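Lab manual, section 2.4: Encoding a predicted structure.

Procedure: take the sequence of the chain (302 residues), apply the prediction step described in section 2.3, and record the output as C-alpha cells. A sample record is shown.
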Amino acid sequence: MPTPDPIVGLDGLYFAAKQLVDGLYTGRHASPLRGAGIEFHDYRPYTPGDDLRTVDWKLYGRTDRYYLKRYRRETDLNLHVMVDGSASMDFVGLSGKRQTTGPTKFAIAQTLAAALTTLAIQQGDRAGLGVFDGSLRCLHPPTGSPRQLMAMLADLEHAQPAEGVANLPASLKQLTHTLGGRKAAIAVVSDLLDEPEPMMDVFDRLRFAGHEVLVFQVLTPDELALPTETRGLRMIDPESGPAVNTRPQQVAAQYRQLIQEHLDTVRRSLAARGIDHTLVNTREPLIGVLRRYLIQRAGRAK
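Recorded output:
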C-alpha cells in the first residue's frame, strides 16, 4: 500500500513529519548527517546471538577466541535545517485558488524541514531549525529530545513568509557565529531564485570551515515551465514589488531557457563543491523526494 503524502495542517506538522519518516522504513535509511563517520574503538567478547559480521576473524586466528569490534562516531555532527521564509516562498502557482492548487513552497519547505529533523533525531542524531528572510529570523539549537522536537516544530508550523527579499549568505553567516567553531551539517531549504555567485561564496566558506552542506531547491511546476494557457498575465515580484504585464505564449520559450540555465548553473556549481542538491517540485510527493535523496546519499557514502 503506498504511503500517503501528508499535507501540513494547522496543528499537525509534527505528525505529518512522523508519518513521512515512518513511511521511509527508517531503519533501512541512513541519517541525513553525511559527515558523521565511525572509527574503531575497542573489542568485547562474543556472546550467543551477536552479529557474526562484527567478529574480528584475524584476531580469532591469533587467539582462538571470538571478539567483536566496537565502533564510535568520529564526529558528533549536528544538523541545522535552514528554511527560506521570504516572500517568494509564499507562492502556489499562476492561476487558481490556493486551496485548490496545492500548498505553497513555504508549506512544502516546512514539511520537508520537519521530516529531516525528525529523521535525524529518531536515528540518534541532534537537529535544529532556523527560518530566514533578509536575516536569520529565528533559530532553535540542535536537540536530540523528541519533546523539544515537538516544541521546535510547533514554532516552525506557525511561521509565515515575511515581506522582502531573502539574504541566504547573510543568514548563513549569522548561523556560523552561533556554532562556536563546532562542525555541523547545514541543510538549506529554499527556492534559490537569486544570483548563484554570492550563494556559492558562502557555501565555499562553510565547506572550508569543515561543515557539510545540503541543498533542497523548492520550486512550483509553473516556475519550472511557464504555462501558456493564460492569455494575459500580470507578473509581480513578491520580494521587491515591480510588476509587468505579459503574454505567456510570447515569453514561455525564453523563460524556460532562462530557468533551465539557472538550474544548470546551480547544479554544476554545487556539484563542483561536493554539495548535495535535490530539486523539489511542489507537486511531487515528499516521501518520494526524501527516499530519492537518502538512497542517492547512501550510494555516494559507500
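Check your result against the sample. DSSP finds ten helices and ten strands in the chain.
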